[in-house]
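Sample entry copied in:
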Amino acid sequence: MQPRNMSMSGVVDLAAVKAAGEARQKAEQARAEAARGGRTAAAPPVAVIDVNEADFEREVLQRSAQVPVVIDFWAEWCGPCRQLSPVLERMAAEYDGRFILAKIDVEANQMLFQQFGVQGIPAVFAVVGGQALPLFQGAAPEAQIRQVLDQLIQVAEERFGIVGGPLGAAGEGGAEAEQAVPEQPAGPYDAALAAAHQALDAGDLGGAVQAYRNVLSDDPGHPEAKLGLAQAELLQRVEGMDAQAVRKAAADDPAAADAQIAAADLDLVGGHVEDAFGRLVETVRRTVGDERERARVRLLELFEVIGADDPRVTRARTALARVLF
């Protein structure tokens, strides 16, 4: 079976930016507390952990600020799960701290199963910097699993600055455990980014948008602020939308640019990335003048939400170029 639903940028949801910020803050607090005690924050002593709803925040979200966490949704009665789980466990040990495998029994943790929107098991997700990323579903061949994991580790480092390390390098009994964590100087935009995270925490999307814009006014290329602004503006646009009415308007008039643009926003927030991109490419093809330009600009904005390195963005850019030229 081919891995399905692989995404290195994740499904956009109302907690995406907020969760990443919370995970970073908690990791920083843990490192600061460890430094005050004259020791490093302990690295995970094992490669595979069992996780439940009660300890999910500590074992997955907080860990994900320091190392990618791969989640294996499984059940005892599931034959393909019994085929896939040993492969993932062996690879977790082999990768030696570059990712942690968290096993979640769906029978005992229905809330997590529903929150992740799992369609069937086995299902494999990752959490990096507090953000959930769907990887694949089903018992995939080992070579393809390895390819997905390698890409996950690369993206965690390049886009999130998160790099795991050897399990024996720190933690209980590790030689580095006696060394204090050096205090990191605050970045020039940490206060503004913290303000954006706090605004998201309070449900103040307008405040988050302004905080990200404050960073970009001084540093137009700041990657975290660009991504945060694109996501916050998207969430602000869909807030209060009547989804049924928006989709009906789009279905009733496929040539109406504004209706298709609104529906594309809903598509993306719902995780239907390719549907959103395809809808807007088709709108650009159907329309002319100002309507065409509005659809094109919105498509570029949605590219920012997902990330330029996502293959779905690459394909959509090619499709857009075809209809424009």
